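pasting for ref
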Amino acid sequence: MAKKTATKKAKAEKSILTKNSIEFLHNYLNNPSPTGFESEGQKLWLNYIKPYVDDHFIDNYGTAVAVINPKAEFKVVIEAHADEISWFVHYITNDGFIYLRRNGGSDHMIAPSKRVNIHTEKGIIKAVFGWPAIHVRDAAREEAPSLKNIFLDCGCATKKEVEELGIHVGCVVTYEDEFMVLNDRYYVGRALDNRIGGFMIAEVARLLKESKTKLPFGLYITNSVQEEVGLRGAEMISHTIKPNVAIITDVCHDTQSPMMNKIASGDLACGKGPVLTYGPAVQNNLLKLILDAATKNKIPFQRAAASRATGTDTDAFAYSIGGVPSALISLPLRYMHTTVESVHKHDVENVIKLIFESLKGIKNNHNFKYF
């Protein structure tokens, strides 16, 4: 009896991800995709998803859309955003140091001692965020890192040397940190916000293809650009697709680690399932359909409340073209906008399952009227 129970448990815990899926995730997360310069990441994503879809297109700013049933009139979007936070070269001093501006919500506090890649037309130039040694800092009047004092050192002694490397104002800068797995439980790396979302919606496409699931509507699997600077990619592509329904996936804050405030940010935990948000941009009937899918398929989930905006591409879809019924499925994440963003493996799989099962609950010409 014990042996049978163990076998059943092993089957129940079998991963829905394949070896090829994990290889794609590894490569996709390691590839830089800064806001406004997402093209190489979008190429990787499209190359992976193409076998599972009927068509694809890319808009003028780089949002990539893979389509199943492109001729169908009723259109459903599942969406994530492809861009990662980064920096722009802003000012090069005469003695060869480089000051920066943010491209998205880059965190100045984590910058000192980080290694970076400066992207130039000549290729990648390596640099480091310099910082004075602890021995020479005045503990009583110690300065915190800020945009006024963090700087890059690329090993040059003059501005001319910097420029000869191909570095100029406007070059984009990304962190060097790469993908890892922590204690066989967490995927860790920079830019899980939100390329892990692009991975998850691509996996939904794979599951639909491999399970031979036939959808009665057109499915637009959308990997948007420029979310980190104001939801701009989603704003543009919503007018192109003109969807009837949109399900967005992004990350949210795990609040269990030290220094997090549950009163301010809610009680959300990595490993306890996708997070479903209540808020003005979330259409209640679509949310109910997703809740029903989670309950019916025994997918664990958590709940969050958005005060005004969700701060995700959900807002861009919800308030476009007369109002698109939209909902948000979030992935709990620790240490957002750092180079060690961390998500639980089980949550990743459960977000994929929840989107997959929710799609199966949407009928052709589904009526999501308010009442």
